[in-house]
Structures are given as structure tokens and as C-alpha cells.
């Protein structure tokens, strides 16, 4: 995922006046305990932890730990830890220092106000297609 694509997505789908933390790695953890790692939202697609690394555990459409697997632990709209579940907790967003940026979740409860996250969620709601969203962000 390139920074250019992330910036474009944020500009298209969110308020450009909001401040963000795009210069720090945004790490995703399960919403319930904060113990299960779910990938890095804005890391290079070549990073093993990136949600845009199509060969990695967190970026493959087929991995149980990927937000892009609609049948997986973090990608199913029925899973509590999935950002695509409007009634679930979604994923916690933190940086390497432990700073908390809210939740990556369609649920308004503690939803992150980072432009990148609101942009991705807005795009998901407009597209209503996880595969197209992944392609938009990552390819």
C-alpha cells in the first residue's frame, strides 16, 4: 500500500481537516483483549505484517488472520473483532509506543477519527465489496 494511495483514499472519503498519524505505523489488534495481532494498516506492502502484503498472514485474502478474508477471524462481517461488523468491537489501533488511536470499526463506539481509517470505512460502505476495497488500497 503506497502512502500516495492512502492519502488519496483519505482525501476522497473523509474530512481533510482532521489530523492523522499516517507517519507512524498503525498496528491492529483484536478488540476484545488487544493481544492478537491483526497486521499493520499503513506499512509497506513488502512488510510481512502489512495488510497489503498479499503473500503475508495479514494481507492474503485466504488467511484466517487477514481483514480481507470475509470468512476469517478479522474479516468476517459477523466476527466481533472485524472492522466490517457494525455491531462488533472491531480492531484496536495503536502505534509501536502503545499510543491508542481508537477502533477500526464500522461501529461508532470508540471509532477512530484518523483520516485513513474513516476513509477506508467510508469506501467500504460505498463499495460494499471487500475485494474491490482491498484492490483499491493495495494494488
Structure in words:
Helices cover 24% and strands 12% of the residues. It has 3 helices and 4 strands; from the N terminus they run αββββαα. Strands 2-1-3-4 form a 4-stranded antiparallel sheet. The chain is globular.
User: How would you state the average pLDDT, rounded?
Assistant: 87
Strand-pairing-aware structural class: alpha+beta
Strand order of the largest sheet: 2-1-3-4
Query: What order do the helices and strands follow?
Result: HEEEEHH
Strand composition percent? 5-15%
Give the overall silhouette: globular
Q: Largest sheet, if any?
A: 4 strands, antiparallel
Rg from alpha-carbon coordinates: 13 Å
Distance between the termini: 7 Å
Number of helices: 3
Highlighted features:
4-stranded antiparallel beta sheet; alpha+beta; 139 residues; 3 helices
Question: What order do the helices and strands come in, and which of them pair?
Answer:
Elements: H1 3-13, E1 27-30, E2 37-40, E3 91-94, E4 100-104, H2 115-127, H3 130-138
Antiparallel strand pairs: 1-2, 1-3, 3-4
In short:
It contains 3 helices and 4 strands; from the N terminus they run H-E-E-E-E-H-H.
Amino acid at each position: 500500500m503506497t502512502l500516495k494511495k492512502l492519502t488519496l483514499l483519505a482525501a476522497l472519503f473523509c474530512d481533510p481537516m482532521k489530523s492523522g498519524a499516517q507517519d507512524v505505523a498503525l498496528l491492529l489488534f483484536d478488540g476484545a483483549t488487544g493481544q492478537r495481532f491483526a497486521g499493520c494498516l499503513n506499512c509497506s506492502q513488502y512488510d510481512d505484517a502489512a495488510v497489503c502484503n498479499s503473500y503475508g498472514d495479514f494481507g492474503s485474502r485466504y488467511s484466517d488472520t487477514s481483514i480481507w478474508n470475509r470468512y476469517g477471524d478479522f474479516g468476517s462481517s459477523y466476527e466481533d473483532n472485524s472492522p466490517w461488523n457494525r455491531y462488533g468491537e472491531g480492531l484496536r489501533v495503536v502505534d509501536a509506543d502503545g499510543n491508542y488511536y481508537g477502533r477500526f470499526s464500522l461501529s461508532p463506539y470508540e471509532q477512530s477519527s484518523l483520516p485513513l481509517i474513516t476513509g477506508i470505512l467510508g469506501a467500504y460502505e460505498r463499495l460494499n465489496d471487500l475485494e474491490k476495497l482491498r484492490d483499491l488500497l493495495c494494488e
